Every structure is written in structure tokens, then in C-alpha cells.
Amino acid sequence: MDALELTLLYLLAAVLAVTACRGLKLPAILGYLVAGVLMEPHTLGLAYGQDAESIRHLAEYGVVFLMFVIGLEFNLPKLRAMRQHVFGLGFAQVGLTVLLVTVGGAALNALVPHIWPLGWQASLALGGAMAMSSTAIVVKMMADRLELDSAYGQRIMGVLLFQDLAVVWLLVLVPALGAEPEKLFTALLFAAVKATALITLLLWGGQRVMRWWLTLVARVKSEELFVLNLLLMALGLAWLTEQAGLSLALGAFICGVLISETEFKVQVEAEIRPFHDVLLGLFFITIGMMLDWRQVFVQWHLVLLLLALPVLFKLLLVTGLARGMGASGGVALRTGLYLAQAGEFGFVLLSIARRDALVPPELFTPVLAAMVLSMLATPFIILASNRIVMRLVSSEWLQQSLQMTSIAQSTINTRAHVLICGYGRSGQAMARLLEREGIPYVALDLDPDRVRQARAAGHTVAFGDAGKLQALVAAGLGRASAVAITYLETHAVMKALHTIRTHAPTLPVLVRTQTDRDLDALRAAGATEVVPESLEGSLMLASHALVLMGVPVRRVIRVVQDQREARYGLLRGFFHGADDVSEEDLAHERLATFIIPARLAGLRLSELLDESGGGLRAVSLRRRGGDAAATDDDPKIGAGDTVVLSGNAEALARAELALAA
């Protein structure tokens, strides 16, 4: 199979697998792993030759960009805010996992070398791999389930943050373990000294140089140059650390850290993301391809053992550590369940151990298979976590019952109230206005600190998830006169809307959204009114300008009311600039100006819209002589007239092609 055919096969497998995962609302990383497993040479009976090895080398740069992004997200204030979970629970989890696996492996090697042939060096490498959990899978699923701000969510994020820090040193340590026994101590010491010296030098002197250089490049105002410069810096520092005898990934991490403290961080994240996603996906495909399923079936008992023991070990360790650090039984068990699987960096460390002959081939395949299976099982473990906790932790039933009882007790005498879902800035502002007018309200929020402070201040707020029927019923959904959903995340709003509409189909529901992108979708999902903050802000700004220009206040109020009744029709869509190129910007309704060609003269405006491919609406029409013309009565258009059309980027692109043809 030649290089082109192999590349096409990679792309086909990736597209199909990732599409299936997205349809099932699973992380894309699982799709890449499955694609790799399906492309394993013995699965399809294909011979890839040297091209597969070349692609595998290319895929290693996915790890480089992964470390670059982790460095980019490195945030000292965030680390300080979560230091108890990061340097407490996170340090204990990683440190004890590596220590216990290393000591246990060395003991087994001494007692039963024919069963466990790995020395302490290989055991340490496996311990480092086992200590990692999947950030990509866990964080995505917690975000979808609105669990990031929960007690266990904060602990999980703290552990994952420390794992990201620990992997930097493991990437230095593990390659040095392959040195000859008599030179091992010297190799480890030399690697640590080199890494410390290089990191110190780059961080100490690199910050000013990085900011100066990025500013210089940005002044050119060339997007191509900016992207090329990012690739040069990330790969250049990766090459520098490799030349120093360290890993490529370490240099990329340092590059990300240097950029993270500059004002270019957000732009860099947007520009580097496509390279990161594609190459990292390629890396996980190659990981899946390493699995020899014939060996897996032959050694199935060993695979199951290597799957069950590490998962149970991490589950018990993390649960015990979290419990010992003050977490309740339910919180501790959920933390353990979410972190029990293998992680992305586990594959990286395992690949290094295989390359340096620390792990023999006959053991590599079952270990790899066990890690892949544990990651494939993770979404299902997380989905079942609530049932598992309820079954195993007797106090969890009591706690959740008490929580629902507490909500119900605080709202039992409340009638005809407004139920506020989300008690952030918008929710609190609404509550103050309702309270001033004497209208009762009940608020639900998932931030325990916010709930505690608000309740202490006398606000009617309770800890609860508005996406769950039990919490809504306890908060008086059946007695409420209206519901206001203030969440920022559209998927969270949709979840709450679905639950509310299923059990209260006629109850008025007011929804807040940041932009008008999801306005129609939210109304279709059951929202009575949708308030887009960007359009309301524009409307308020324009109304103040009209008053300042001497327009009577009564007329200004009428203009504002007309726009709201028309669902902001005049305000939706705007002329986009060169900087509006993100995926989110492309999905927005936007405006574009077209000059009518002679061949279309005489058409009605509605006929022009049909000619343009559909999905558009006419905003304004200006005659060739400069006079404005009304669009409501479907006027005829003439050659040289200027029409402003509104629609998304795809519809406007079709119109441009149709009108230019």
C-alpha cells in the first residue's frame, strides 16, 4: 500500500469513527482509538510497509502540540486557587501510584522473576503511565453533565492539573531509565540537572524575548506569518530540548508556558488548535494500530487482569485519599470512578518505555490493550457513576434526600414565584429586581460557595441541578409562575428546557443567551422568550444615543418595543471583518453587500433571494442613484442597485457565486 492510499485510509477511518462518537456524544479521542484498532494490519489483512512508520513519526508531533497547549493553559493563579486539590490530592495520587507500582514491581521481580520479568526501572515507567488519567474524556463529560463546579469536579480537576505537571518530569525521567545499570544514577541526575537548568534559563530569559518577538510579528498583520511563527517557535524549542538530550514534548511545553503569560495567548490557542487536533488524532490512531489482536485473544486472561487490577487500584487509592482529605463518601467515590482509567499521557510514556526496551514486546501488547479498553469503558462508568454511588454509599441516598428536602422546605410556602436556574451575575440581578417589586423567587445553582454566601445573605437559593427533575420539583416547578434560565452554555440550557417542557409544557420560560446565534433553536426547544445579551446591549446603546440626539423618550421606547416584538430582526446580522474567522463567527448571521448585475434587472426582490440560493433575507435596498427603497413591498430591482442581504457565511457564499455567475 502506497503513502497516498494509506493516508486516505487513515482519513476515512478517522472521519467515520469520530462522526460516530460525536453522534453518541462521546469524546473524539475514543473515535481515533477505535479507528486505529480497526486499521491494525492483522484486522484488515493489509501490509502498510515503511509508510506506516513514517506516519507514526509524524503522529509523534501530536504529542508535541498537546504539550504546547498544556503549557499554554498553564495558569499560576488557577494553581494557587486550587492548590489544596492540586498539590494535596493530586500529588498524593501521582506520587503514591508511582511509588507503590515501582516497589511492588521490584518485589515481584525479586520473588517471581519468571512471572514478572520487569525490574524497578520498567515498573517505574509503568507506574508513571498508570498514574495518568484521561483529561480529554473526563473534562468533556463533566462539562456536558455540568459537574465542573461540583465538590468532586473540583477535586478531579485538581488531580488532572497535577498529572499535567507531573508528566513534564516523567518525560525527562523515563527515557533516562533505559541507561545501563552502572550509569543509571548518573543518567537520571544528569537528565534532572539538564531539565532544571534549561527550564530555568528559558523561563527566566525567554518571557521578555517571547513577548517582544510576538509583538514584532503581530505588527506585520499577516495571519500566515503569525501561524508560521508559532510552528517555528513550538518545533524550534522542541528541537532544542531534544538536542539537549531531553524530549521534544518538554520544549513544546516550555514554549506554551512562555506564551501563556503574554497578551497573545487567546490568538495562539485559536491558531494552533487545528494542528494540535489533527496530529493528536493521528497519534491515537497509531496507538490503536499497535494492538495485535491475535496476541490479545491469546493472552486474554492477562489483558483482563491488567485491565481490572490498575482500575481497581486507582479507584481504591483515589477514593481513600479523597476520603482521608475530608471528602464525603459519595464525593470520594465519584472522584475515584472518574479518575480510574488510563490517560493520553499513559500511552506516551508507554511508547517511550517500549522504544527504550524497558517493556518487552510480549508485555507491551496486553498492557496497551488494557489501557485502550479502560478508556473505552470510561464514558459508561461515568454515566453509571450515580447508580454506583447510590448502591455502594448508603449516606449518599440520605444526602441527596436531605438536599431535595432542604430545597422543598425552603420553597414549600412559595407560590406563583419565578424559578431562577443559575445564580451568577444575571440571576442575582434578576433576583434583586424581583425582590424590589415584591415578587417571590427561588434560585438553583451548582456552586456551593455561591449558594452558601447567598443563603447567608438571606437569598432564597439552594444547591441543585436545574437539569434534573427532582431538583426542579423540589424548587416548586409545579407552583411557579415562570422560569428564567441564565446559564451561558447552550447545551445546559437545552437540557433544562427539555426537562421543564416535558413536565410543564405551558409554563413561561425566559432564556438568556450571549448572542443571537442560538435564538431560533432555543425558541424551537420551548423557550417563551429569548434575550440575547449582545442585541439587548446594542439596543440599549442605540436608545441612549437617540435620546441624546433629541428624539422624544416616548418614541425611543416605541422603537425598542418594536424591535423586541420583531425578534430583533433589524439588529440581527452585521458586517464581518477580517478578524471574524472563528467557527463560532461563521455560524452567526452576518450582512453582505451586493451590486445587482444587469442580467438580474427587473426581478422582484423575492425572486432575487430565490436566485441567490435561499437561506437569506433582504435588509435594505439602495437605488443606483443613492436613494433608499423600502423592502417590505417586494420591489423590482435595477442594474447597479445595492442590496444588503443577511444570512450565515455558507448562504452568503452561495449568493456571491450565484450573483457573479
From TrEMBL:
What biological process terms from GO does the record include? potassium ion transport; proton transmembrane transport
Keyword NADP set for record: no
Ranges for domain RCK N-terminal: 415-532
Question: Molecular function terms in GO for this entry?
Answer: antiporter activity; monoatomic cation transmembrane transporter activity
Give the residue spans that cross the bilayer. 58-76, 88-112, 118-139, 159-178, 184-204, 225-240, 297-319, 331-352, 364-384
Q: Which InterPro entries match?
A: Cation/H_exchanger_TM, Na+/solute_symporter_sf, NAD(P)-bd_dom_sf, RCK_C, RCK_C_sf, RCK_N
Annotated localization: Membrane
Primary localization: membrane
Specify the protein's topology with respect to the membrane.
Multi-pass membrane protein
Q: What is this protein called?
A: Potassium transporter
Q: What taxonomic classification does the UniProt entry list for its organism?
A: Bacteria, Pseudomonadati, Pseudomonadota, Betaproteobacteria, Burkholderiales
